[in-house]
Amino acid sequence: MIKLKSQKQIEKMREAGKLLASCHQALRNLVKPGITTLELDQFVESFLLERGAKPAQKGYMGYPFATCASVNHEVCHGLPNKNVLKNGDIITIDFVVNLNGWLADSAWSYGVGTISQESQRLMDATKKAMYKGIEQAQVGNRLGDIGYAIQSYAEKKGYSIVKEFIGHGIGRNIHEDPQVHHVGERNTGTTLKEGMVITIEPIFNKGMPYITMKSDGWTSVTFDRSLSAQYEHTIAITKEGPIILTEQF
Ligand code: MF3
Ligand code: CO
């Protein structure tokens, strides 16, 4: 069941989203060779707690950290650890903010120091695909239009899309209906209505789309060890068009 949100509720989610976005902006300057993903995780957790918010991923389905931190061939749900980031790495940091009971979710890929052109291209294409999906998040469009926009962009750029992880409705809970696939056909699937709030969060791999799980039981990695990037925003669907609740300024 899709829980539609009122304007007031969307406003609350936007407050959570703004806080999340400002935390990502702070992270942008912290992601440097020498720092660990555990230090970044602790930064995020304190940042949120100091501002009266909570890291909603911590404790969710037993997940032990505020953030997911996925480096290079790690696809998503990477566990923060004491490994030091190196020049040329790429890292995706994903977290969910709970502010006054309303949630927002956003993941962003960052380059560490100076990164290769191939890494930059993968990141740029993944980000652009997310925005192409967001463009389709219009009242009267259908979920397949979002998937189609993302899939056709990936194909054009020669990247593969991880199918196992999808976007989702969000509100008082991290994962609500509907499921938002990043592949699809135009004019298929659920019709988008005013008041739906969803995430769009494509993951692109440089190589094959297949993934496997690390022995920690959380971290997904690419099967062929190729690089992976992800961008995610939380989007409200309104008569005036999509509003990106987690937009960074
Ligand atoms: N932020 C993730 C998403 O985009 C949710 C991660 S769930 C966790 O759906 F348990 F791994 F934290
Ligand atoms: Co997320």
Tag the structure with descriptive keywords.
single chain; 249 residues; 15 strands; alpha+beta; 27% strand; 4 helices; binds 2-amino-4-trifluoromethylsulfanyl-butyric acid; binds cobalt (II) ion; Creatine Amidinohydrolase; four-stranded antiparallel sheet; three-stranded antiparallel sheet
Structural topology:
Layout: H1 7-30, H2 37-50, E1 54-55, E2 67-71, E3 74-76, E4 90-99, E5 102-111, H3 117-135, H4 143-157, E6 160-161, E7 167-169, E8 176-180, E9 197-200, E10 203-205, E11 211-213, E12 220-222, E13 228-230, E14 233-238, E15 241-244
Antiparallel strand pairs: 1-4, 2-4, 3-12, 4-5, 6-10, 7-8, 9-14, 10-13, 11-12, 14-15
The structure holds 2-amino-4-trifluoromethylsulfanyl-butyric acid (MF3) and cobalt (II) ion (CO).
How would you characterize the overall build of this protein?
With about 250 residues, the protein is α+β, with helices and mostly antiparallel strands. The chain has a single domain (about 5-245), classed as Creatine Amidinohydrolase, CATH 3.90.230.10. Helix content is about 30%, strand content about 25%. It is built from 4 helices and 15 strands. The chain has helices at about 5-30, 35-50, 115-135, 145-155, and strands at about 55, 65-70, 75, 90-100, 100-110, 160, 165-170, 175-180, 195-200, 205, 210-215, 220, 230, 235-240, 240-245. The strands form 5 sheets. Strands 1, 2, 4 and 5 form a 4-stranded antiparallel sheet that branches. The protein has a 3-stranded antiparallel sheet with strand order 3-12-11, with no helix packed on it. Strands 6-10-13 form a 3-stranded antiparallel sheet, covered by helices on one side. The longest helix has 24 residues, at about 5-30. The site of 2-amino-4-trifluoromethylsulfanyl-butyric acid has 13 residues, from strand 4. 2-amino-4-trifluoromethylsulfanyl-butyric acid binds near residues 61, 63 and 94.
